Predict the structure.
Amino acid sequence: MLLVENLHVNYGGISALRGIDLTIKDNQIVTLIGANGAGKSSTLRAIMNLVKKAEGTVKYNDEDLTNLATMDIVKKGIALSPEGRKVFSNLSVEENLILGAYTVKDSQLVKEGIYKVYELFPRLKERSWQQAGTLSGGEQQMLAVGRALMISPKILMLDEPSLGLAPLLVNDIFDIITELHRQGNTILLVEQNAKKALEIADYGYVLETGTLVLEGGGKELLQDQRVQEAYLGEAAK
Amino acid sequence: MSLAEFMQHLVNGTSLGSLYALIAIGYTMVYGILRLINFAHGDIFMMGTYLAYYGILFTPIPWYLVFILAPLLTGLLGLVLEKLAYKPMRGSPRITILISAIGASFLLQNFGILVFGGRPKAFPIPGILDTTLTVSGVSVDLISIIIPIITIALLVILNFFIKKTKTGMAMRALAKDFETASLMGININGIISIVFFIGSFLAAVGGIMWGIKYPQLMPTMGVVPGLKCFIAAVIGGIGNITGAVLGGFILGLGEILLIAFLPNLTGYRDAFAFVLLIVILLVRPTGLLGEKTSEKV
Ligand SMILES: Nc1ncnc2c1ncn2[C@@H]1O[C@H](COP(=O)(O)OP(=O)(O)OP(=O)(O)O)[C@@H](O)[C@H]1O
Ligand SMILES: [Mg+2]
C-alpha cells in the first residue's frame, strides 16, 4: 500500500500542490483526474522525488520513501512512465527496455521481462533494433509503458499513457492496463481521458488546482454530477 | 619527397593523431553528458604523465606496471576533480561551471609547478621502447608504431563498453535525459564518475605515450595539447566519440603533413588547428559527425 500524506509542492513561490492525501491499495487501479495544470504530474513526480516536496510524506508499506533518491525509490519497486513518453531516442527499443530493468541484477529476469513486454506489445518486438526516436508516437508510448514494466513494479504509475494516441490505440492501452490489473499489478493512473480511467479504476481522486476536491470508487465518481459536468462533458448520460 | 620520407611522416602523423584522439575522448564524453567543457582535462593529461615519471624513477614498481597504475590513479584524480570542482556547481549557470573548470586547470598547473618544479624533466623511457625500426628504408621510432596500436585497442574496448554493457547504455541515456535516466534507477552520480574516470584514464595513457615520444615534461605541458584536443573534439562534433577520434586523427595527420609538405609553415604549426576549426565550423557548425540537438518529442 502506498500512502501519500499532506503533500505540498511549490515551484518558486507558486504552490502547485496544497496538501493532498492518497491511498493506493495493493492490486487496485487508482486514478487521479483533473484539468490541465491541476497538479497530477507534480504528484507523481513528487512521489518519485523528481521534484522537491515542500511538505508531506510518502510511505510504502510502512517504509518511508519521502527523502529517498529517485533511484532508490525505483529499487523499492515503484516505476513511473513519465508524461510525454521520454523514451531514450538515441537507444534502440531493446536497449530502452534493458535500461528499464537497470536495477534488475538477474539477467534471466531481464530476458523474461523483455519477452513479456513483447507479448504485450508485439509491435515493439518487430522493431526491437529500431532507434526509439524513430518510432511513431503510439509506439513510443508503448515503449514507455513497457519500459516501466521491466522491473515488474509493485506500483506502476502511468502519467497520461493515452496522450496523443488514436482512439483505437487508446483502447489498446486501456485494455493493457486492465490486463495488468488482472495480473495483480497495482496501478496509479493519471489520465486526461477521465471517463475511461474511471471506468476501469477501483478508486479515483479528483484534483483541482492543487487540492483534492472529491474521491470515491471509480463507478461512483462516474455517476457523480460534479464529475460529469466538469470532466465528462457530454459523455454523461 | 621520397616515398620513404612520406611514409615516415604518415606514421608520425598517425601516432600524433592517436594521442590527440585519446585525449579528445575525455572532452567529448564529459561534454556529451554534462554539457561542460572540462578545461582541466589537459592538466589531467599532464598529471598522468608526471605520475608515470615519479612511478618509474621513485618507486620499485616495474615500468610496465607503472604504465597501468598511473592511468588508474589519474582516472581517480579525474573522478575526484569532478566531485570537488563540478558536482557542487551542478545546476548552476554554465558560466559559473566554466569558471570553476578554468580554476581547476590553474590549480593543477600550479600544483605541478609547486610540487614537480617548473623546470622541464626528461621522461624516463624504458630501454626496450627506446628503439628505432627500419623497414625497407623507412625508419620510425618503435613508439610511433605502438601508439596507434594501443590507441586502437583502447578504442575497440571503449566502443564495446559503450555499445554493449548496461553501464554504457546508461551513459548514452544520461547524455539524452538525466531525469528519465534516474527513473530507470540509474545512479547518475556514479555514471558521471565513471565518465570522468574513463576520460582521465585515457588522457593519462596518452600522456605516457606522449612522454615517450616527446620526452620533456613541464607542468604546463597539458595546455597546448589540451586546447588542440578540445578543438579535435569540436571538429568531430562535440559529444560524439567517433567524431572526437576522427577529429584527433585529422588534426594530428594534418599538422605533421602540413610541415612535411610546407616546411616554411613550421612556425604556424599550432595555428593549423585553429584555422581548421574555423573552416570546419563555418561549413558545418555541428562539427563533422555532430547532430543538431533537436529531437523528436
Ligand atoms: N518545473 C516547473 N516549474 C514551474 N511550474 C511548474 C513546473 N512544473 C509544473 N508547474 C506548474 O505546476 C502546476 C501543476 O502542473 P502539473 O504538470 O502537475 O499539472 P498536470 O495536472 O499534470 O497538468 P496536465 O494535465 O497539463 O499534464 C501548473 O500550474 C504548472 O504550470
Ligand atoms: Mg501532467
Observations:
- The mean pLDDT of chain B is 93.
- The radius of gyration of chain B is 19 Å.
- The pocket of adenosine-5'-triphosphate (ligand 1) is lined by residues A 11, 16, 34, 36-42, 83 (CB under 6 Å).
